[in-house]
Amino acid sequence: MRYKKRKYFLAGRINLIQRSKIRELFEKARKMKNVISLGIGEPDFDTPEVIKEAAKRAIDEGYTHYTPNAGIPEFREAIAEYYRSHYRIDVSSDDIIVTAGAYEATYLAFQTLLEAGDDVIIPDPAFVCYAEDAKIAEAGIIRLPLREENDFQINPDELLEAITKRTRVLVVNYPNNPTGAVLTKETVRAIADIAEDYNLYILSDEPYEHFLYEGAKHYPMIKYAPDNTILANSFSKTFAMTGWRLGFTIAPKQVIRDMIKLHAYVIGNVTSFVQIAGITALRDRRSWEAVKRMRHTYAERRKVVLKYLEEMPHLTPFRPKGAFYVWAKIDPELDMSSEDFANWLLENARVVVIPGTAFGKAGEGWVRISYATKRGQLIEAMERMKEALSGL
Ligand code: PLP
To answer: How many Å apart are CA 161 and CA 149, to the nearest integer?
Structure first.
């Protein structure tokens, strides 16, 4: 299409959003041959067969129309049932809204809870969407550094210091992207107490809950601060369903009711047959067996990556207990920024890793390595990195 040359006008709000800084790195990688990407935050597995079959059957059975805005009642019930049986949390299906992944949950939560000028506390480093969604909500952003000496958990004392009179929301994301950190029960309890004392909502984004290693456990925030938690979860990682756009939010009734109002005019409802497949994902034994297999495979790969990194010069891994990322520290002696390092690695090893600064200023000096990549590729990437870094 050839558009007429004319002056367009755009809302200022849209310029608040920053496109991902790592696009250039990916662009550069795309133009090169024989590159292995450890940059992607997406399972390399196919969606379990039983879930795909359920979606196909649902189409044939006529699930091709609008559904209630909040989601198909049986699916919401299956989600409530999952929390009751997995975590012994008494969730009611009325407190659930089915969303287009966890992305939508953050958008809805911030738009529903934050007035212009309110503050939201976002850890640093953190997954990229929180800060951008906060900007669209015209909220003030307070970054709360996560420290290695604290295993990248939120430090309750530092959290207390960060709270302002206008702080309304705190973002919590464990198992964590990008660090792979998990929270201990004590920290979850401490955060829950602070949220209650200061009347904050916690947006707890928990899509990696099933990817845990070395005996780590997940403590859903909602269990410890039920009146203050907006729980965002997703089928994307658990069931390798990123393209299906299926997730959900659980929150106190008055919040959910208002989130549904916005959702109704943005999404309407999540795709009908995808919701039906979601029921199978949660209720069928075979889909959970697939999750278990994926977890074992990730665990094996995690070991491989850690072993290589421990032997490799110039990179020191933090030992992650969750998700499918390794957060590795760049040797300060190299005197390279995260971005320079990632570029250097692309040029010299033909491997893509994500510079830590993509996740916030506190990510300087670090890179994120994703092991959601086939074992053979992963080993090849590690060999290449080892060779390139040994030459430095
Ligand atoms: N939250 C975190 C922490 C993520 O890592 C991701 C995806 O990488 C998302 C949310 C978005 O997931 P979804 O596909 O459910 O929208």
So the answer is: 18
Tell me which of 3.90.1150.10, 2.30.40.10, 3.10.310.40, 1.10.10.10 is the CATH number of domain 12-46+288-390. 3.90.1150.10
CATH 3.40.640.10 residue ranges for the chain? 49-286
pLDDT-derived band at 284, boundaries 50, 70, 90: very high
Separation of CA 14 and ligand 1 centre (Å): 21
Q: For 217, how many CA atoms within 13 A lie in the half-sphere containing its CB? A: 10
pTM: 0.96
* Dist CA 114 CA 116 (whole Å): 7
Helix (H, G, I), strand (E, B) or coil at 154: coil
Question: At a CB cut-off of 8 Å and minimum separation 6, what does 253 contact?
Answer: 94, 95
Which residues are near ligand 1 (CB < 6 Å)?
41, 101-103, 127, 173, 177, 205, 207, 234, 236, 242, 247
- Topology (CATH level 3) of domain 49-286: Aspartate Aminotransferase; domain 2 (3.40.640)
Q: How confident is the model at residue 313 (pLDDT cuts 50, 70, 90)?
A: very high
**What does the alpha-carbon distance between residue 105 and residue 129 come to, in Å, rounded to a whole number?**
11
- Per-residue buried b or exposed e for 26-57, using 16+ beta carbons within 10 Å of the residue's own CB: beebeeeeebbbbbebebbbebbebbeebbee
Atom 10 of ligand 1, nearest CA residue: 102
pLDDT at 8 over 80: no
Atom of ligand 1 nearest to the CA of 246: 15
Residue ranges of the chain that CATH labels 3.90.1150.10: 12-46+288-390
- Nearest protein Cα to ligand 1, atom 8: 41
First to last CA, the chain: 50
Helices of type H across the chain? 23-30, 49-60, 73-87, 101-113, 129-136, 156-162, 185-197, 221-224, 253-266, 272-283, 285-311, 338-349, 375-390
Compute the distance between CA of residue 104 and CA of residue 263 in angstroms, rounded to an integer.
8
Cα radius of gyration (the chain)? 21
Residue 327 vs residues 66, 89, 148, 254, 316: alpha-carbon distances, Å: 42, 32, 10, 38, 9
Q: Any bridge partners for residue 123, and if so which?
A: 144
The Cα 340–Cα 330 span in angstroms is: 11
